[in-house]
Design goal:
The N terminus and C terminus are likely disordered. This protein is globular. It has a 5-stranded mixed beta sheet, with no helix packed on it. The protein is α/β, with parallel strands linked by helices.
Length: about 450
């Protein structure tokens, strides 16, 4: 933890309990020079048959060798993790997260609560909590699509430095919109012309963001200005789009990733021409299907999920009490006002892209009401699998395809020599039951063991 972080949090008395809870977590283990994961089934991120009884050797932060355990000897000096009976796969990539949100039921009360309980210091605590939740869920890389600029960049730096724990974060900072709404002013940049949109992109790029988010109310000429300016700076643009006209404008003006398209009760499903054009262009779509139209009925079927002790333990008590209180009357939350319409169209909205063979990444809008970081990504994966996407294709979307969408395919997304050692170990076989993704036993990020049952490590001399 940096001195600046500690001083900021210590200055706010109300956060003492929260920080005590976070700091009570086990210290990050020292990164071994050499690490071996041995014995489990390996899914390497490609659409290829699994390698059974495999071994993966890691030196520093990179994978150096992959093969059958029987023919891949582990040299002396390696720390060995026994993965027999389990599945090894690349760390998952979350393409639409919000660290500033933790599943609280109502934005109208959540942001004022943060302000009353420490302001910027509490916001940073919330973001640190979300980052740790994502990492423990097996997510080793994530895109944050909407938060104050300074906090976004600071949390990214702190995660890179090792505290707090979290995935590799790509940050958009505030989004660009013509229609500011719901979130506080610092979370969005209001524009009224293409020139203003281009200036906003330039300011964000100069500050050091990783991606640009184009939000609601934008016109075709705004998308042109945003895409051209961002691409000159080497940045990709993610667009928040629902209506067919907005999707068409984003597609034809060079927006890189279509976020939300096909979800949230978009009706009727898009025209065949639009779906064909998206698929033929190879333009990535991140549907974020589960966060409303599946979360609501799933919670109705099992409201006990809102009192999960593991969820409570994953955040400071002060924050948990506020989250828990916000979900007491969850059926009447404004966020779910259109649930009936969304449920009516939800399956058609997802199937249209699966059946067309569109490029699909996996993102969840995690942190939105009742959509907890701890489980959002496996729920999104389950929706896609239930609606006809093969488990292998789902896993590729979570890993290799996600890395390509981010432009990070040289380092991330597959398990092969030379790649960064981002590997998770699951209890169970996701090819048989995709919900095995919910049971992450071990997380390795950049060669560092971030989560692992202590008893499963054997040190070799």
């Amino acid at each position: 933890m940096t001195k600046r972080w500690w001083l900021a949090v210590s200055a706010v008395v109300v956060l003492v309990a929260a920080r005590a809870n976070l700091d009570a977590q086990p210290a990050r283990p020292a990164s071994p020079q050499r690490l071996a994961l041995v014995g489990g089934m390996l899914l390497d991120g490609y659409d290829a048959p699994p390698l059974h009884h495999a071994a993966v050797l890691i030196e520093g932060d990179r994978i150096v060798r992959v093969g059958p355990a029987a023919s891949t000897p582990v040299p002396e000096g390696y720390t060995v993790i026994d993965t027999r009976g389990r599945t090894m796969m690349p760390g998952m990539i979350e393409l639409h997260a919000h660290l500033v949100l933790l599943g609280h039921g109502n934005y109208a009360t959540w942001f004022p609560w943060i302000d009353r309980n420490g302001g910027d210091a509490m916001l940073r605590t919330v973001m640190a909590t979300a980052a740790a939740q994502l990492l423990d869920a097996g997510i080793t890389s994530a895109v944050d699509l909407g938060a104050p600029l300074e906090a976004s960049l600071a949390v990214r730096r702190e995660i890179d430095a090792g505290r707090p724990r979290g995935p590799r974060m790509l940050m958009s900072g505030p989004w660009i919109t013509r229609t500011p709404a719901v979130f506080p002013e610092s979370y969005q940049v209001a524009i009224d012309s293409p020139d203003a949109a281009a200036r906003a992109v330039t300011r964000l790029a100069d500050a050091g963001v990783d991606v640009i988010k184009a939000h609601s109310g934008l016109r075709r000429e705004d998308y042109v200005a945003i895409a051209e300016t961002a691409h000159r700076r080497g940045l990709r643009v993610h667009a928040h789009v629902y209506a067919e006209g907005d999707v068409r404008n984003a597609l034809e003006t060079g927006i890189d990733v279509l976020q939300h398209a096909g979800s949230a009760g978009t009706a009727p499903p898009y025209s065949a021409a639009l779906i064909t054009d998206i698929a033929n262009a190879g333009r990535p779509v991140v549907i974020t299907a589960a966060h409303r139209s599946w979360i609501y009925p799933d919670t109705a079927a099992f409201p006990e999920r809102l009192q999960d002790p593991a969820l409570a333990r994953s955040m400071p008590p002060t924050i948990w009490r506020e989250i828990e209180q916000s979900t007491v009357a969850w059926r009447a939350l404004p966020y779910f006002a259109r649930t009936d319409r969304e449920v009516l169209y939800r399956e058609r909205g997802v199937r249209q892209f699966i059946e067309a063979g569109a490029v699909l990444g996996m993102g969840t809008d995690s942190g939105t009401p009742l959509n907890f970081h701890t489980e959002a990504l496996w729920r999104e994966a389950k929706v896609h699998a239930d609606l006809g996407m093969s488990p292998m294709r789902v896993i590729s979307a979570l890993t290799r395809v996600g890395a390509t969408i981010l432009g990070r395919q040289r380092d991330l997304g597959t398990i092969e020599p030379g790649k960064l050692a981002d590997i998770i170990v699951l209890q169970g076989n996701p090819l048989f039951d995709i919900t095995a993704l919910a049971h992450v036993a071990t997380v390795v990020k950049g060669g560092r063991v971030e989560k692992r049952p202590v008893q499963e490590q054997e040190a070799r001399p």
